[in-house]
Design brief:
The chain is of the alpha+beta class and 101 residues long. Helices cover 37% and strands 32% of the residues. The chain has a 4-stranded antiparallel sheet with strand order 2-3-1-4, covered by helices on one side.
């Protein structure tokens, strides 16, 4: 069963194209995380929030990623990280064309 990880936090920027350029190496490194399947990057410059929606193979790999990512964000001065893990109902998600494997 796949698990969805939702992460968000306050961030001053960058956003948009500047964010894509600044974090492209980070995006590449996320591809190497154990159990990682995909990520949708989220941002809201109006409220100065960023984060992402991730899909992991197991709950354990999602939990390990949260631990590692929270420490990495703390290195950027971001300490108030909201993270939630959800099991996915594959049957209903398939009906609504959700991108899970």
């Amino acid at each position: 069963m796949a698990y969805l990880l939702q992460v968000d936090f306050k961030m001053e920027g960058p956003f948009g194209d500047e964010m894509a350029e600044a974090f492209s190496d980070l995006a590449e490194s996320i591809n190497e995380e154990k159990g990682f399947i995909w990520k949708i990057w989220t941002e809201n410059p109006d409220t100065k929030e960023a984060g992402g929606i991730y899909l992991f193979e197991t709950k354990e790999t999602a939990e390990k990623y949260i631990d590692m990512h929270s420490k990495r964000l703390a290195g950027f001065g971001i300490t108030d990280v909201n993270a939630n893990i959800f099991a996915i109902n594959s049957k209903l998600t398939e009906i609504t064309n959700g991108p899970v494997q």
